[in-house]
Amino acid sequence: MNFSPNRFSSSYYIVLASLAVAGPSSADDAIVEIIVSADLRNATLLESAASISVINSQAIKQRQARHLEQVLNIAPNVNFSSGASRGRFIQIRGIGERSQFIEPLNPSVGILVDGIDFTGIAGAATTMDIQQVEILRGPQGTLYGANALAGLIYLQSVQPGTETEGNLSVSLGDYGTETISGALGGPINDTLGYRLAVQQHSSDGYIENDFLGRDDTNNIDELSLRSILDWQASIDTNLKLTIFHVNADNGYDAFSLDNTRHTLSDNPGHDRHEATALALQSSWQGNQSFELASTLSYANNNLEYGYDEDWTNPDICVDFVCVFDGYASVDNYSRDRENTSLDVRLVSKEGGQIFRGDTDWVIGAYWREQDEQLLREYTFAAGDFASDFDTTSKAIYAQLDTHLSDALTLTTGLRFEKRSADYGDSELVAHSVNESLWGGRIALQYQAVSNTMIYGLVSRGYKAGGVNSDPDLDAADREFGTEQMWNIETGVKGLWLDDTLQTQISAFYQLRDDIQIKQSLVQPMVSGGSSFTDYFSNAAEGTNYGVEAEFNWLVTDMVALFGSVGLLKTEFDTPLSDTLDSREQAHAPSHQFALGTSVQLTDSLALTIDIEGKDEFFLSSSHETKSDAYEMVNANMTYDTGDWELSIWGRNLTDEDVIVRGFSFPNDPRKGYINEPYYQFGAPRVFGFTGQYDF
Questions:
Q1: Could you read off the pLDDT of 96-137 as tens digits, one per residue?
Q2: What backbone phi and psi angles, to 5 degrees, belong to 147?
């Protein structure tokens, strides 16, 4: 029986690693990486010529994270923006989208869950039964193409094992937070294994609506289900079927006229996402020279996002003195998205190398089709707005790993992609494009000694052009062009101090051409307040450069230290607009860090404390509003008896007001609709208790 830990996903640079402090043990203990699959073939994390962070299940559990947004700050130079109930939009090294309204979106960061594409809609990225989160920084032009200009995030769930095992967990916390989850997996017979997981997570949220007298208008209500069947159909053939379902029915009442956690809206919004998806992965090893692997995935997503645009109620000018009468408006966006993809590849095996047996190889073909339909219902619109955005991508790619010597390896990869997009809407805006795109990388890695590797690489990524949908735009602003980026990177990875200290350090320099930036035209309304016209345009050039470092150190049998730091400098080389000069890019803090320790207090009792922080950063490319710098402390104390695990935990112990989204516009009738900044805050201080039974 052969249940592989997802050997079919190697084309996405998947890296599996584990670091755990399991209690008092011998002095010979060291950091152990259990599985690594990078550059399309098995390797260790320290042999992967790329800047990669791995967040394992232990780190997820220590943070009591229920969603991807709650662990992203562990990784250097990774940020996210909300503007919804969850952090749906990711930025890597300062590159990535921050929101989506009426316009069609071409994402910069790929999001995959067990091989299923959720790019641009990371709200579905719950951490139910997740084994690890892999974050690949830099353009993934060879293996993922147009939607991974900045990088790729891959969530991989726990896979079927050779023994029956599972767990049940209950968690309770402040603000009505409740989580119930369970998982069960193992063999059905000698050739078939399974894994089932379910999680229900709910919370009242951290907002009090003073007008309605409610404390749950920004609530969380998320159900996640996953089933996996792993079948060794024959000695040469393995098939794996993953079925995934998420039903999120969350509230959205996050912005206050007073920039507090107290709102005055009479029509609190919602952020709903129902997704049903599957992936069929196959592997055939009947040939002595190569393996044939494929991944077929399908996802059906129904999203509805709406909010009270005025953030007020009919009594606002009765309860308060207003300079102008208030207005009332709601805005609602319903999206239906279907996404189908197929990736087929040949991966050389030992004995199948070419060029005198020195070169491993991979060749593959990729097809992806996505159809997204939008219905917008807006108070001040003459009628409902509808649009249809269809994209098709076809690509071929190849990679060679040439072993120049026992210590020196040259990797070359190239991808050619043909992308077509068709857009049409009820305002008679129409757009069609056919683009030929290419990306790739050249990397040279040197194994200096048995536990130290040095690498350098040059990679090229791309982000497809598109159309702005708003009919009020001038014809010159209707379309925007393709963005390209060259990434130059070097790094060192290794184990030191008798293999108790693991370190990764990388430095990068990225040259961006025809940068796609999001702008907003703010126009006053007759009734008060303002309306927005969001659109994308191209800045001429820009640069992003910096340093990333991570370490895990088993100081003693009882104490471990871990941490990361990201330093980032971003620049626009040309003015952004007539009123904004060239400056730093949005959602790109100049530094961020995470530092923590795990201490085994007794055989059964462990304490983990960590602190994370970020510098201030611009919240948009269209205004000067910034976030605040912050440092936040988290803690978890766990009592583990083997079968039972009891945890007391706290997040944001110093109760910092962490800004996760921000705008600048006039919206307060009490102040005469003057332009001012508004902020959405992340979670305040939260305490909780979790009990888990493993069997």
A1: 999 888 888 889 999 999 999 999 898 889 999 999 899 999
A2: -100, 20
Among candidate residues 133, 136, 109, the one with its CA nearest the CA of residue 121: 109
640 with 77: CB under 8 angstroms?
no
Length of the chain: 695
Q: Comparing 441 with 35, which gets the higher pLDDT?
A: 441
Q: For residues 299 and 14, give the distance between their C-alpha atoms in angstroms, rounded to a whole number.
A: 21
Q: Both tokens of residue 54? A: 């791995």
Q: CA-CA distance, 631 to 651, in Å (whole number)?
A: 12
Helix (H) or strand (E) holding 485: strand 483-496
Element (H, E) at 408: strand 408-425
Backbone angles phi, psi at 455, to 5 degrees: -140, 160
Residue 146 belongs to what H/E stretch? none
First-residue to last-residue Cα distance in the chain: 22
Look-up: residue for tokens 């332009």? 675
Q: What's the CA gap between 674 and 539, in Å, rounded?
A: 29
| 293 and 283 Cβ atoms separated by less than 8 Å | yes
Distance, in Å, from the CA atom of 35 to the CA atom of 54, rounded to the nearest integer, reads 12
> 590 near 568, Cβ under 8 Å?
yes
| Whether the Cβ atoms of residue 228 and residue 240 lie closer than 8 Å to each other | yes
Contacts of 459 (CB under 8 A, 6+ apart): 138, 139, 141, 142, 439, 440, 441, 442, 443, 486, 487, 489
> pLDDT digits over 627-648, tens only?
999 999 999 999 999 999 999 9
Side-chain half-sphere exposure of 472, counting CA atoms within 13 A: 12
Is the Cβ–Cβ distance between 109 and 118 less than 8 Å? no
pTM summary value: 0.92
**What backbone torsions phi and psi does residue 73 show, to the nearest 5 degrees?**
-70, -10
Residue 620 has pLDDT above 80, yes or no: yes
- Give tens-digit pLDDT for 551-582: 999 999 999 999 999 999 999 887 666 556 67
pLDDT tens per residue across span 445-498: 999 888 899 999 999 999 988 888 776 777 667 788 899 999 999 999 999 999
385 is written with which tokens? 């707005």
Within 8 A by CB and 6+ apart from 425, the residues are 385, 386, 387, 388, 469
Query: Residue 657 carries which side chain, given as an amino acid letter?
Result: D
Q: Which of 52, 56, 14 is nearest to 598 (CA)?
A: 56
**CATH code assigned to 7-694:** 2.40.170.20
pLDDT at residue 471 in the model: 67
